[in-house]
Design a protein that fits this description.
Layout: H1 4-7, E1 17-21, H2 25-37, E2 42-47, H3 55-59, H4 82-88, H5 93-102, H6 114-130, E3 134-138, E4 141-144, E5 151-154, E6 159-161, E7 164-167, E8 190-191, E9 209-212, H7 216-227, E10 234-238, H8 265-281, H9 287-293, H10 297-303, H11 306-324, H12 329-340, E11 344-348, E12 350-357, E13 360-366, E14 372-377, E15 379-382, H13 396-403, E16 418-419, E17 422-424, E18 430-436, H14 442-445, H15 451-466, H16 475-481
Parallel strand pairs: 1-2, 1-7, 2-3, 7-18, 8-15, 9-10, 9-15, 10-11
Antiparallel strand pairs: 4-5, 5-6, 12-13, 13-14, 16-17, 17-18
The structure holds flavin-adenine dinucleotide (FAD).
Length: 486
């Protein structure tokens, strides 16, 4: 893997015009930081949905959906921080009461509703739109323009030409939990994407539900159903049946990885076990040990060979996901209560067979020991999380990018190859006009999900595109400065 410094795209001249595809957090941050550095640039953002800023994470949510990081960790380096914005918005203070009660009155430590972060992002971007510094092109980008033009074609036929294109496409809908041709999708009651508008609308309060997946998506959907008075049985299933863990307040743990770098996945696992046991003996929450790893995740990932990455994905990822993607304490309380009351049952195993049985779907789940359990549900909800296999997704823009050989889907099915945000072509060459930020760049970073990492990435790209200097030369260093989304 080339050194970060040498990968810096020095060849990129400041582009006079930029089009950003996607107006969630990643696209919004690109617009904010590029225009903060170079207000003279012509920047346009293409977004197909009717809100610019919140995206799925901070838009498609109710009051009960909380941010899974405390307020102070959501610093996106704009002129007003989220914490300061919340402090000044006195009309929102009643919404904060519960969160402040839990955090002992400390706003920086509070887990507040996600929709507030969405409103904050929306307000930041509205200023740019209102002042005509940023133009919102409403529509879906479906293809790239034919060379020598650069830019994108919208579904309604408009051509948006620009010197540089940034893909901020965000999370794709989930992949089928079974083989694509198996027919589960055709059964009445299967919900392929819980984030699709109105996906949960047809569910009656007493109907039994099966969630495929036991991670944060399942938690979100169970909370939403619970909040709308659902009383039917809920079952959640995944291979290992692991639920996300909960956040804990207090304590500190020193960085323990630097002296061990570079390290194999097995060495990492041993070190984490050792430190966790020591932390527990010292009365420090184990969560602080995981937090101490986070700033080094990008470096560790980049140092691993493909077999090491594959080994991590196969053996350690399920465990990593649940200790890393944690629930806010109030959310964990609700989930614990649902489990204790027997309203949410967690089953480990694989989906073996399913069949329509009248109005229900009957699903056979086979555990590790070979034991089979049949769950009857009116609705089977796909909570397996966003798909990332860009080599096969059928969204028009990605299909066109593959056809033009503009992208190189990675071998592990995590996203597309990039070098410092420059999209690498099928032929292995980093582009000097096509860039990407956010989850589709996971092959280069592994952890590029949470707001702090995306912020670090966007700051780097914005500096390159606007030819403005950065304080440090390494993006991995900046991940560390930001505490990488703890
Ligand atoms: C439910 C949920 C909760 C989360 N909670 C947290 C949290 O608490 N804290 C945290 O740090 N992170 C959280 N995350 C992680 C989250 O993914 C990132 O923080 C961030 O929101 C990702 O933003 P994005 O802009 O990359 O993607 P998205 O929010 O998915 O936005 C992408 C946008 O691009 C648009 N788009 C895509 N393709 C096209 C096209 N061809 N043409 C036009 N428009 C297009 C989409 O309409 C969408 O609006 C959460 C994620 C989810 C899904």
């Amino acid at each position: 893997m080339p050194d970060q410094k040498s990968m810096r795209p020095t060849a990129i001249a400041a582009a006079a015009s930029i089009v950003i595809v996607g107006g969630g957090l990643s696209g919004t941050l690109c617009a904010l930081h590029i225009l903060a550095a170079r207000p003279d640039l012509q920047v346009r953002i293409v977004e197909r949905n009717d809100r610019l800023g919140p995206g799925v994470a901070y838009g498609a949510c109710s009051d009960g959906h909380l941010l899974n990081v405390p307020v102070s960790r959501l610093d996106i380096r704009t002129s007003i921080s989220f914490e300061a914005w919340l402090t000044h918005k006195t009309s929102l203070h009643p919404d904060l009461a519960e969160a402040l009660g839990e955090s002992g009155g400390q706003l920086g430590d509070a887990f507040v509703p996600r929709r507030l972060f969405g409103a904050y992002l929306e307000e930041q971007i509205e200023h740019l739109i209102a002042s005509n510094k940023l133009i919102w092109k409403r529509g879906e980008a479906i293809a790239f323009l034919d060379p020598p033009k650069r830019g994108v074609l919208l579904a309604d036929g408009r051509e948006i030409a620009a010197g540089a294109v940034i893909l901020a496409l965000g999370n794709l809908p989930p992949k089928s939990p079974v083989r694509d041709d198996s027919g589960l999708e055709d059964l009445g009651g299967f919900i392929p994407d819980p984030w699709a508008t109105g996906a949960l609308a047809g569910i009656q309060a007493s109907e039994p539900i099966l969630f495929v997946g036991t991670g944060l998506t399942m938690v979100d959907v169970a909370l939403a159903l619970n909040a709308q008075g659902h009383s039917g049985d809920m079952t959640a299933t995944s291979r290992r049946g692991l639920l996300p863990t909960r956040h804990a307040f207090g304590g500190q743990w020193p960085p323990f990885l630097p002296s061990l770098l570079p390290m194999s996945p097995a060495t990492l696992l041993r070190a984490v076990r050792r430190e966790t046991e020591q932390a527990l003996r010292d009365g420090v929450p184990w969560q602080r040990v995981i937090d101490a790893i986070r700033p080094f995740v990008a470096r560790i990932w980049r140092s691993w060979s493909r077999p090491e990455r594959r080994s991590f994905l196969r053996h350690l990822r399920p465990r990593w996901d649940v200790v890393r993607h944690r629930m806010a304490p109030r959310i964990a309380d609700v989930i614990d209560a649902l489990v204790t009351e027997g309203r949410l049952n967690v089953v480990s195993g694989r989906l073996a067979r399913y069949r329509q049985a009248g109005r229900e779907i009957a699903i056979d789940i086979v555990g590790k020991d070979g034991e089979q359990q049949t769950v009857h549900a009116h609705h089977v909800i796909n909570c397996t999380g966003p798909r990332s296999d860009f080599g096969s997704v059928g969204t028009p823009l990605i299909v066109d990018a593959r056809r033009r050989k503009l992208i190189h889907p990675d071998a592990l099915g995590l996203g597309i190859e990039t070098e410092n945000c420059a999209v690498v072509s099928a032929g292995g060459v980093p582009s000097n006009w096509l860039f990407a930020v956010g989850s589709l760049t996971r092959p280069a970073w592994w952890e590029i999900t949470a707001a702090p990492e995306i912020t670090a990435q966007v700051l780097d790209l914005a500096a390159s595109l606007t030819a403005t200097p950065l304080e440090t030369s390494s993006l991995a260093d900046r991940f560390q400065d930001l505490g990488a989304g703890i």
